[in-house]
Each structure stands twice: as structure tokens, then as C-alpha cells.
């Protein structure tokens, strides 16, 4: 048996599981791959945004660790078939690009509505990117989770963009300013970084940014950053 090394210290991203899953659905599932597929689908669907959230088969196959854990693509197809037969997942086929694709919805009120809308031709899915496991947290990801709140896919994308645009020490310092001023939102941090990039972080007025920038952003032209 391969042992689990334990969850990492600090806050970790979480996902919601319906109480009915524990009280009603879990006792019914008697196949381990169906259980793994169901739990993965519940996690993955919560990475989607928008009113109608769905998964494609490749949202499962893209995750190498998950696929190895269930035994490959034949096992995936069996698990999906079992989850659909139990109606934990709802599915329908649509034309996406040059070939048909099967959509998978969780059997919730919104999932049932989405399925009906697709079948009536009233809603067409877009071309969202693949669901992915967020990367091992660099310092700024952990800082965000520890001091700002839950790390969502949208926030993760903003942090990735910031890493490309600004030095890491700038980002960490701007986050510390936000925490010190109890302005725990990313727009506040982004505003500080944009100002440093525009005006120069190392000039005289930025000698004590933890005080000067905090005061400027809390009042005046940047006050709206606190509202996000």
C-alpha cells in the first residue's frame, strides 16, 4: 500500500460536497472507479465559471495522476458510464468544432436546466480551457491563501499574470502593504504594483511604501480598490 504523506501546512484550496452525497449517494456507489470519477467531477466542475458548468472527457484525461489512479481510459469510460447510469452525472452530445463532444453536468437544478437548454437548442457551450490542478503554490499563492482568502481559478490567473509582469519581491511587498492596511483584495495590490511600475518603486517618495502607499490607496483616487 502506498501511504499518503499528509496535507501540506497552511490553508489549502477546498471544494464543496453536497450533504446528500454523504447521506444518500455514497452508500449507493459500490464501484471504486465510479466513486473516483464522481468525486473528480464534483471537484473539476467547481473550477468552471458561468451559469451552466460542464465537463468534457478530456477534462478527465488531461490529469495524468487521476488517470493512472483509475487504470486508464477504458476505466474512465466505465466510470463515466456508471455515473451517468446512476444519474449522478447527466450527459448529452453536441457539436463542438469539427466533431461531436459529450458534455457532462452534475445532476443539480442548474445541471438539469443546462441539459434541457442544450436539447432545445437554446444554449451552446463555449470553448473554455481545460480544467487543471492549480500548480504547487509559490510564495505568493500561499500568501494569498493565508492572508486574503480562498484561491479561485480567476485569482490564480491574476497571480500568474502578476508574476510575469512584476518582480516577485514587489508582489510580496505589495501584499504585505495590503495586509497591514487591512485592504485584503487583489485590486488594492494590483494598484500598488501598477503605480510602482509607472512612477518607479525606488524613487524618494517610495522610501517607506508600507506607510506612504497605504495612505494613498486608502484615500483619494484609489479608494475604490477597497471595494472589490
Task: Explain what you see.
This protein is mainly α. It has 11 helices and 2 strands.
Key descriptive features of the protein:
mainly alpha; disordered C terminus; 11 helices; 228 residues
Summarize the structure.
With 228 residues, the chain is mostly helical. The chain is built from eleven helices and two strands, in the order H-H-H-H-H-E-E-H-H-H-H-H-H. The N and C termini lie far apart (47 Å).
Number of strand elements: 2
Q: Span from first to last CA?
A: 47 Å
The proportion of strand residues reads: 5-15%
H/E order of the elements? HHHHHEEHHHHHH
Structural class: mainly alpha
Main sheet record: 2 strands, antiparallel
Helical percentage? 40-55%
Low-confidence stretches: 204-228
Tell me the strand order in the biggest sheet: 1-2
Mean pLDDT over all positions = 82
Shape: globular
Integer-rounded radius of gyration = 22 Å
Number of helices in the DSSP assignment? 11
Secondary-structure map:
Layout: H1 19-25, H2 32-45, H3 57-61, H4 64-70, H5 73-85, E1 89-96, E2 99-106, H6 109-119, H7 139-147, H8 153-165, H9 168-180, H10 186-199, H11 209-218
Antiparallel strand pairs: 1-2
Helix pairs in contact: 2-5, 7-9, 9-10, 9-11
